[in-house]
């Protein structure tokens, strides 16, 4: 009896999610308000932003840098913050113990190759240089124009990767995958140090986003992402994003990607995550008690207004 009920629940959940993933529902109904706002207040774009938008539209990825985007001030303050965090005793202890765990083959959890550099809980402080970067004009101009709506700012991460011992297998996001958060989304990756081949550069399969020629490979199953085999990824369209400190990568990570498999060098990276309003995934931050949005730009207000109580979707499996 129990298993029959479980099956019915799973079937209904699957039916619900596959219905809401249909373009007519996802785009025309669930994203209607965000889309209308974008159409009513189209952003004024610089030539650089226009180029980036056209690039991400055609390839699913576009690369720029801090000075081209005019974000030097935010970057400098963020780098100072990261520098302070990096020498913090607590971060050092965590980094050293993960390093030792990796070296001794004791990596027990999938994300242990990443060290969180954020201090405490993720509290949405609009005056923090990281958040100022995420919600700045150039970033929102590109993200919103690619999504063709007013996007929601869902999450951020400030992390350093721990180099892997030679011959270690790939874990979690080090393997090819599509992210689960939405059918179309943008992650903005900002390199805080120089990232070479040995620092686990972000890697993408160009044109694996919506409308791209590789969209059919390992499709997402909303609200789940998907994982792919290395051997099935067409080599000719793989883009390996090595880059200097200050590199900014706009990427639709509903397309196939991987990264963070550092062999020798650390990689310091700040990630901003934007989805459409239709995403069923919860936000990962909390609002400060004295959060005021009176004087902020409407599209920023919209971006940071999220349902703080949204729960993780249950990933129902049949059979
Ligand atoms: O660490 C990386 O380069 C990839 C991270 C990733 O897969 C993600 O943020 O979705
Ligand atoms: Fe990912």
TrEMBL record:
GO terms for molecular function: 2-oxoglutarate-dependent dioxygenase activity. It comes from Candidatus Taylorbacteria bacterium RIFCSPLOWO2_01_FULL_45_15b. InterPro entries: Phytyl_CoA_dOase-like (IPR008775). Pfam families: PhyH (PF05721). This is Phytanoyl-CoA dioxygenase.
């Amino acid at each position: 009896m129990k298993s029959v009920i479980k099956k019915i629940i799973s079937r209904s959940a699957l039916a619900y999610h596959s219905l809401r993933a249909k373009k007519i529902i996802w785009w025309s109904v669930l994203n209607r308000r965000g889309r209308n706002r974008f159409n009513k207040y189209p952003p004024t774009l610089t030539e650089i932003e226009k180029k980036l938008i056209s690039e991400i539209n055609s390839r699913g990825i576009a690369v720029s840098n801090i000075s081209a985007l005019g974000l030097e001030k935010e970057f400098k303050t963020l780098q100072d913050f990261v520098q302070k965090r990096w020498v913090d005793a607590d971060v050092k202890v965590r980094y050293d113990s993960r390093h030792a765990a990796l070296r001794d083959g004791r990596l027990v959890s999938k994300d242990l190759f990443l060290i969180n550099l954020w201090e405490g809980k993720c509290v949405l402080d609009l005056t923090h240089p990281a958040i100022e970067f995420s919600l700045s004009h150039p970033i929102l101009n590109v993200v919103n124009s690619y999504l063709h709506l007013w996007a929601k700012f869902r999450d951020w991460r400030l992390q350093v990767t721990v180099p892997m011992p030679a011959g270690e297998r790939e874990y979690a996001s080090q393997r090819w995958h599509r992210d689960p958060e939405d059918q179309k989304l943008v992650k903005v990756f900002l390199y805080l140090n120089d990232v070479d081949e040995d620092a686990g550069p972000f890697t993408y399969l160009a044109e694996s986003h919506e409308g791209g020629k590789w969209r059919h490979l390992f499709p997402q199953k909303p609200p789940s992402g998907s994982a792919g085999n290395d051997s099935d990824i067409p080599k000719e369209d793989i883009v390996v994003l090595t880059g200097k400190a200050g590199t900014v990568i706009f990427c639709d990570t509903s397309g196939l990607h991987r990264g963070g498999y550092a062999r020798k060098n650390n990689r310091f990276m700040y990630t901003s995550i934007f989805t459409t309003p239709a995403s069923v995934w919860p936000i990962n931050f909390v609002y400060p008690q004295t959060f005021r949005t009176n004087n902020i730009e409407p599209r920023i207000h919209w971006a940071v207004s999220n349902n703080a109580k949204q729960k993780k979707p249950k990933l129902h499996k049949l059979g």
